[in-house]
Amino acid sequence: MTAPQHPDNKEKAKEAATSVLPDLPCWNLDALYRGIEDPQLEKDIQIAREEASVFSQHYKGRLPTLSAVELGTAVCAYERLQERVARLGVFAFLKHAENLVEGKVARFRQALQEQLTDIEKAVLFFPLELNALDDATLNKACTQDPTLTRYTSWLQALRRFKPHQLSEDLEELLAEKALTARLAWITLYDESEAAMRFRVKEEDVILSEVLHQLSDEQASVRREAAHALGKGLAAHLPLLTTITNTLAQDKALEDRRRGFRAPIDARNLDNRIEGEVVQSLVESVRAFYPRLSHRYYRLKARWLGCAKGSEKLDYWDRLAPVPNSSKRVIPWAEARATVLAAYDGFSDEFGALARQFFEHPWIDAAPRTGKMSGAFSCPCVPETHPVILMSYRGRTRDVMTLAHEMGHAVHQALAAEQGFLLSQTPLTLAETASVFGERLTFDLMLERTRDRGEKRALLAGKIEDMLNTVVRQIAFLDFEQKLHERRRRAPLSSDEIGDLWMETTRESLGDVFRFDEHYRCYWGYVSHFVHAPFYVYAYAFGDGLVNVLYALYREGMADFEDRYKALLVAGGSGDYKALLATFGLDPLAGDFWQRGLLVIEGMIEQLEELLDDKEDA
């Protein structure tokens, strides 16, 4: 069913109604607040401000004198305050994501962030003073009070940062300066990207549209879109270069103060993952480049008609539809039914959770000018429901994106029972449910496809998605690491950043591709580089892990559904190695990542066999 329209979304609904997919839903954020003029916003800000003041007066400087029960009470009060603050911040983020170029909303978000920073500053002492407690004192308290015991994993994650935390006055300064430093540059990037227009066929189009045209069935459309994307980014290259240099240097300065040796170290610590596990993942994927991406794209070049051994693929043909790809626009109702059937097929409970998102206005799927590009599922806060944002255009890839974000949403809904501090899943497991849900949906679509040509095309599309998730994301990580390392020594010019981009791209995709100068700017639209440095390896981690988990599921592992649900319900309350051990898996084992990569290689071999089989070709 189509989600009911909220009054604030009338204009969005009107725009969506003129498209070829008129039934696309828009979300309703009333579960948080009824718009940016809602008087409850100011009331909650005032409540949070008062709670922070009382909390500070009651606990600041007193933690060493508290009993275990009193310390547990303090953690619970801190969690309630953090959830109230998060509710306000999430609402501002979601309203901004609806329309990045609407000045009124941007000003609302900025003003709210400034107020929330003041509130956060008042309680910043608490995690710092918790970390100042010696291990023996805190461990003893955790054994004496059941409430505090429940937060053990949160306390352990907090104490991982102990060697890197600064004095309270410096931490306060960093929190205050973030609004006019890092967050200001991120906002500038987001608003600039949303305002960018790309000239295609005498028409100015937004970023999501020009990216969509890179997978058009007509080579001429892909070529024009590719050049338009490059020209459009080049026009903003000085700004993009300045933002990148500034944010990289901002990170380097903070890393230096905190004692992080490598640019990626802070991300690994936040993800609660050992650097050697990430390095093992990176080395494994890079070793498989020739067996995965190089091999597949040589196959695609031949499939598209290039002469073997002589012709190359133009870079705008990387996402070109392969022969027999479906040209049909998939209606939203069909996409919904397919995703629900896939989730129902795995578990009635998972299907029921997913169904709620279609029965309520919890998804914003209509493409429109100003809307944040990409897709996400936002957990909001535990007492409300997650919401999904995407731009649905009726392609098979869009169905996969819907299945992916639905996995996040189901995961977030299950983990909500842990409460605010313990429900936030570290990136080691954050992409598990999304990739798993995507795989369930793909297998269902493949099973339902009877035409051999369409089956080949569907399989090729999934391989390409997996290469984008694994190979491309590790190449992105390689690019980021080189850029940040270089930036520690000196600012990079646009040409130098372009050189790094081309170097990592060529290594990962192989010598089958032919590039031109337009492609040198493409790093500029990858928002993860700006929003969350080094986040990208989470996608490769998740895909590799799910490939192994999914094989266990298909092999019929006993109690798989119960083990899998327990992994998702845990949220951030458990150690990822202990959770994976319930499946008999160890990410530190030498062959762990190879097992997942071999799944992709096996799918490429399966496609090669289908192509060699001339029946119905």
Cα separation of the termini: 38 Å
Query: Structural class, judged by helices and strands?
Result: mainly alpha
Spatially, the strands of the biggest sheet line up as 4-6-5
Provide the residue-averaged pLDDT: 92
**How much strand content do the residues show?**
under 5%
What tags apply to this protein structure?
three-stranded mixed sheet, disordered N terminus, Neurolysin, domain 3, two-stranded antiparallel ribbon, Butyryl-CoA Dehydrogenase, subunit A, domain 3, globular
Write a brief caption for the model:
The chain has 617 residues and is mainly α. The chain is 65% helix and 3% strand.
Explain what this protein looks like in three dimensions.
The chain has 617 residues and is an all-alpha fold. Among the domains are: 31-180, Oligopeptidase f, N-terminal domain (Butyryl-CoA Dehydrogenase, subunit A, domain 3); 192-196 and 236-265 and 281-324 and 451-617, Oligoendopeptidase f, C-terminal domain (Neurolysin, domain 3, Orthogonal Bundle), CATH 1.10.1370.20. Helices cover 65% and strands 3% of the residues. It has 29 helices and 7 strands. It has helices spanning 10-17, 39-59, 68-98, 103-123, 125-132, 135-144, 146-150, 152-159, 168-178, 182-195, 207-213, 219-235, 237-258, 265-270, 275-288, 290-303, 332-346, 348-359, 396-415, 420-423, 427-430, 432-448, 452-487, 494-509, 528-531, 537-554, 560-569, 576-581, 592-612; strands at residues 198-200, 203-205, 313-314, 363-364, 376-378, 387-389, 513-514. Helix 2 runs parallel beside helix 4 (103-123) and helix 22 (432-448) crosses helix 26. The chain is globular and about 75 Å long. It starts with 9 loop residues before the first helix and ends in a 5-residue tail after the last helix. The relative contact order is 0.11.
